[in-house]
């Protein structure tokens, strides 16, 4: 098995949860207060804070506090390692499928 990148695994772990993905979707529209992020989830604030903590640990969001209000913002470039890995996997599979296609085409020509 190929050497695994622990940071990439943490990133995919953070993205694996639907609540965290919905929070990121909301933050893609712009920064939001924690209470505004918690509302649509239907979860209690401490649970939402744990999700935000996971997202912040992998660098997908930043938070700032102004008085009693904590605001979150997405960090889009934090998705680059996942995008790069997916692009590499896509290239590997496309190359394999191209070779399979060439093999099948040659086999069909030989049978004609």
TrEMBL record:
Residues 1-94 form the HTH arsR-type domain. PROSITE patterns: HTH_ARSR_2. One of its GO terms (molecular function) is DNA binding. It holds the Pfam family HTH_20. Keywords: DNA-binding. The keyword DNA-binding applies. PANTHER family: SLL0088 PROTEIN, TRANSCRIPTIONAL REGULATORY PROTEIN. This is DNA-binding transcriptional ArsR family regulator. It comes from Amorphus orientalis.
């Amino acid at each position: 098995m190929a050497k695994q990148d622990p940071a990439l695994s943490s990133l995919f772990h953070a993205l694996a949860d639907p609540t965290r993905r919905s929070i990121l979707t909301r933050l893609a529209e712009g920064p939001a207060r924690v209470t505004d992020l918690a509302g649509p989830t239907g979860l209690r604030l401490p649970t939402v804070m744990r999700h935000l903590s996971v997202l912040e640990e992998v660098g997908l969001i930043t938070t700032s506090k102004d008085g009693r209000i904590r605001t979150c913002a997405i960090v889009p470039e934090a998705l680059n390692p996942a995008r790069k890995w997916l692009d590499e996997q896509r290239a590997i599979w496309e190359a394999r499928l191209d070779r399979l296609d060439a093999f099948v085409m040659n086999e069909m020509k030989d049978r004609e």
